[in-house]
Amino acid sequence: MSKKLWSGSVRVPCLAVGIVLALGFASVRPAVAQTSYVVEDLGALAGDSSSVAWAINANGDVVGWSMGPAGTRAFLYTNAGGMVALPGLPDKPRTVARDINDAGVIVGSANAGGTDLGHAVLWSGGSVQDLGTLGTGLYSEAWGVNNLGQVVGWSYTNGGNGLTGVHGFLYTQAAGLVDLTPNSDTGSALDINDASQVTGYKTAFGGYHAFRWQGGSFVDLGVLPGFAHSFGWAINASGQAAGNSGSASGNSERFVRYTDGNGLQNLGGAGEHNVAWGINSLGTVVGTRGQSQSRAVLYTDAGGLQDLSTLIDPSLGWVLLGANDINDADQIVGYAFNNFTGQTHAVRLQPTAGPPPACTFQCLRSTGIELALRSRASTQQTRRVMGSVTVKDENGAPLPLALVIATWIQPDGSRHDDNFWTDANGVAVTSTQGGPGLYTLTIVNIVLSQYTFDPSHSVLTKSITVP
Predict the structure, then answer these.
(1) Given CA atoms 247, 304, 259, 147 in this order, what sign does their dihedral have?
(2) Are the beta carbons of 345 and 43 closer than 8 angstroms?
(3) Please, what's the largest Cα pairwise distance for the chain?
(4) CA angle 316, 317, 319 (to 5 degrees)
(5) Long-range pairs of 172-179 with CB within 8 A, sequence gap ≥ 24
(6) Whose CA, among 4, 87, 236, 411, lies 20 to 30 Å from 118?
């Protein structure tokens, strides 16, 4: 369980509008015994166009937000229920979910839109609770929750003055909101583990410093040599903290991880925007590099810093834009752009050391391919060959509006790539033309929001010889 930043405004992922396949990322070093990942498209809430996954618990449950005409709407995604909207407050209908514990307690914020930064909220058992603010502050947001139900976040303390009156808080049902940084002009508490250790940042000499707090005592996590600031976004069970360290000018930033005995470690990165958002108990770190052309990254001690898009099947069209959290099963959540659909959606990455695991829930399966000669040109040399692909789910129900990506191989060995959609009966039709001989149609991918392509239970290729 992890999460993020206050620096006058909330730092959130920038969703891409038009992104090409070129990644523009150089890994620090090659991976050793590399794990690969299967991308699960979590979709978006009905009527919305895009979504972001922000946190994941030990059960694989995911929270984040979906975006559309009504603004942001917090969601909970589970394997059993799919993506479900979380309720807002009566006067604050727009919502964002930041974290979820293993019992399914969720925290985040609810706002009225416009200039309203909202109030910290807690969701449990389907209901929403307003956690309020510190002092006379107008705004607050919850960022982390542990398995004890303790919540951390930030709150304005003096009306809407965000210059010197934003403090980190700890919330419990017994004590309510408690100011963790009363002596700091600016501070924020961003994550908490089950030992009640909190990480975040507060003002220090010369800038902001990441901290670890426990039982009323602070440990200053310091900054990298030559840098002025540091921020702690996530903390794991052993007290390791992940975040970033930046220069005074703001034109240089590095991924960092703090470990007792080793201090603050530079994990790499180049340029202005490198932020580690999540860390699991093994010390594996995930984050985001870049801003207008952001990329999701993974850091392991064995493999160093890597672009996560290089660790997935490139034929599926995904560009992973941000990685926001990772659990101890190495499941990663974030958001990604798909070059085939043109959509940016919340995603969950499932690790695999070998072939992708078979899909068992909301699966896309090609259950049949039919090929037939439809016509010959008057010259008798050109043939038109039709192909139809039937797409169903794991229960045999036809799936309309699924995008089928396929390749034709023609008799002369030339290749013809085609994308085509299924109709109301789950049937997609394609065609090609050429001379007499062997034609082969091969399914490369099938894409549909909230569904996963299942090649292991699909008919993937068929051939026909045309006289």
Answers:
(1) positive
(2) yes
(3) 87
(4) 120
(5) 173/149, 176/131, 176/132, 177/120, 177/131, 177/132, 177/133, 177/134, 177/140, 179/134, 179/135
(6) 236
CA distances from 291 to 203, 397, 420, 454 (A): 25, 41, 33, 33
Amino acid letter at 192? I
Is the CB of residue 320 less than 8 Å from the CB of residue 344? no
Query: What average pLDDT is seen over the chain?
Result: 89
Evaluated on CA atoms 354, 356, 360, 366, the torsion sign reads negative
Other CB atoms closer than 10 Å to residue 22's CB: what's the count?
8
Per DSSP bridges, beta strands 127-132 and 119-124 are antiparallel
Q: Is the dihedral of CA 10, 166, 4, 25 positive or negative?
A: positive
pTM (2 d.p.): 0.79
- Please name every residue paired with 38 in a beta bridge, in sequence order, or none if there are none: 350
Q: What share of the chain is helix, strand, coil (3-state, %, to 5)?
A: 0, 55, 45
Strand-pairing partners, residue 306, are: 298
Q: What is the DSSP letter of 380?
A: S
pLDDT at 390 over 60: yes
Count CB-CB contacts under 10 A for residue 70: 15
147, 194 Cβ separation under 8 angstroms: yes
Q: Which two tokens stand for residue 151?
A: 């919540």
Q: Per residue in 247-303, pLDDT tens?
A: 999 899 999 999 999 999 999 998 889 999 999 999 999 999 988 789 999 999 999
Q: Which residues pair with 102 in a beta bridge?
A: none
Give 376: exposed, middle or buried? Use CB within 10 Å, 0-12, 13-18, 19+. Answer: middle
Residues 40-90: pLDDT tens digits? 999 999 999 999 999 999 999 999 999 999 999 999 999 999 999 999 999
State how far the Cα of 158 lies from the Cα of 139, in Å rounded to an integer.
Answer: 10
| Residue 406 pLDDT exceeds 70 | yes
Q: Which of 42, 54, 43, 58 is nearest to 13 (CA)?
A: 54
Owner of token pair 């937000």: 65
Place of tokens 């003055």: 161
The token duo for 52 is 């972001």
Paired tokens of 204:
């220090």
Amino acid at 303: G
Say whether 52 sits in a helix, a strand or coil: strand
- Rounded CA gap, 242 and 244, in Å? 7
Complete DSSP assignment for 97-144: EEEE-TT--EEEEEE-STT---EEEEEETTEEEEEE-STEES-EEEEE
What's the chain's Rg over C-alpha atoms? 25
**CA 429 to CA 146: how far, in whole Å?**
50
